[in-house]
Amino acid sequence: MIDFEKLKQIILNNNSFLLTTHVNPDADAIGSEIAFYQLLKKLNKKIVIYNPSQTPYNLEFLDTEKTIKKFSPEIDSNICNDVDVLIALDFNKLDRIVSMKDAFNSSSKIKICIDHHQDSENFVDELFIGLDYSATAEIIYDFIKKTRIVELDFSLANPIYAAIMTDTGSFRFERTTPALHRIIAELLEKRVDPGEVYDKIYDQSKFSKIKLLGKTLNSLMLTANNQIGYMILTQNDFSEVDGIESDTDGFVNLSLSIENVRLGILFIELKSGFKVSFRSKGNLPVNKLAAEFGGGGHINASGARFHDSKLDEFFPIILNKAQEYINKYQ
Predict the structure, then answer these.
(1) Residue 94, strand partner residues
(2) In sequence order, what are the residues at sequence separation of 6 or more whose Cβ sits closer than 8 angstroms to the Cβ of residue 2?
(3) CATH superfamily for domain 4-201
């Protein structure tokens, strides 16, 4: 049970806040930041938002006031000491903020984490973790409703809806419950337009993303038992279509649409190192698989990032380990 009263007192007893989220933010990350920004704004607090990555173009509509800034280690190194409280949203491992890691960790200010992922690290003063929530933004909704710290309105409902909608796979993943649908009903009552939100996130892709999707699907392979589908994107693939890393959001899920496939993997070569996204069906715990390589996430959706490592060297190791999990969790 999250101690919402403690969170409320931290907010009420301090005046300035820095919000941040993980590298390559998704809609839950950005939506949670904007919702919390609006919450703090209603309380007349001073707020800044700094992220290690640029906001993906399809999520910019959530940041109506253009408040989110990209962190620069050369320019913004002192920003984490210029506020009373640092709030980590939608991540629970320090490495997930890459370029901001040192500035965040070295700050002497109050640090809190609000998140819904498993296997959290102890890098903050207060953890507000809810593993049963569908999204970090749902925690923010629950906090608002249970403490009545502010009134729920459109400025809060819209980013919360976008976050929950995406993190539940448009309301089809395991944590889509009757209670969650009742939350969504209330958000819609605050004038959220579900068609508009979906259109802006999923149906306004740049041409480069669609071209990159073609390259991703062209690389699709199945293992010998057809239970693992994997795809590979190289830096050359990105260069050829002028694509960016955030374009790949959701690509890994496509392999799970193939019959008999229980585990989908997307390998993405980065300018320095590479990252791997895992998706699974049923009781196959890809969060444990990702943890074997220093990553983490949810039981059916996880990932890991490899710094200064070559994809060619780790590819067979990761694939073999994935097969072990297929064999273990029948």
Answers:
(1) none
(2) 128, 129, 130, 139, 142, 143
(3) inorganic pyrophosphatase (n-terminal core) (3.90.1640.10)
